[in-house]
Amino acid sequence: MTVLTTATLLLAAGVANAADKTDASLLATDPYQLSSHVLDTSMGKGASSVEVKLFKAADDKSETWTLVDTQKTDSNGRIKTFLPREKGNAADKLGKYKLTFATGAYYQAQKKETFYPNVSVEFSISDNTHYHVPITLTQYGYSTYRGN
């Protein structure tokens, strides 16, 4: 099975710099490029009010991070509004990112101990598609994957 990204389709259609083009239909149907979800598997539900910070690296080899946004998860443990899409700036969104979840504060509010005071997940955005970066969480472990 071949997966075609928006950038691939634009290149095939003859658009020279597809990374700089933001498809108008993406703006209408998916106004944000990045979302996340924190699922507390010990409770079987989303973790609400978890502070999540989004950082972007200066470049792919850099360990210098710039804070892009800070949000809290909603009542279902979700954040749907990271990296708003704006016409013409798709190439600016490419690069290495890091989400840092304040899991210690989440468990402290429940009067529970945790082994991980923060969970950080690094990932790369390489095209204009939607990225979903969730974590499943317990007091003593976590896991992540690329969702959709």
TrEMBL record:
Residues 1-18 form the signal peptide. GO terms for biological process: purine nucleobase metabolic process. GO terms for molecular function: hydroxyisourate hydrolase activity. InterPro entries: Hydroxyisourate_hydrolase, Transthyretin/HIU_hydrolase_d, Transthyretin/HIU_hydrolase_sf, Transthyretin_CS. It is an enzyme of class 3 (hydrolase). It catalyses: 5-hydroxyisourate + H2O = 5-hydroxy-2-oxo-4-ureido-2,5-dihydro-1H-imidazole-5-carboxylate + H(+). SUPFAM superfamilies: Transthyretin (synonym: prealbumin). It holds the Pfam family Transthyretin. Keywords: Hydrolase, Purine metabolism, Signal. Its EC number is 3.5.2.17. Residues 34-147 form the Transthyretin/hydroxyisourate hydrolase domain. PROSITE patterns: TRANSTHYRETIN_2. It comes from the Bacteria. Catalyzes the hydrolysis of 5-hydroxyisourate (HIU) to 2-oxo-4-hydroxy-4-carboxy-5-ureidoimidazoline (OHCU). NCBIfam families: hdxy_isourate. Homotetramer. PANTHER family: 5-HYDROXYISOURATE HYDROLASE (PTHR10395:SF7), URICASE AND TRANSTHYRETIN-RELATED (PTHR10395). Belongs to the transthyretin family. 5-hydroxyisourate hydrolase subfamily. This is 5-hydroxyisourate hydrolase. It comes from Aeromonas cavernicola.
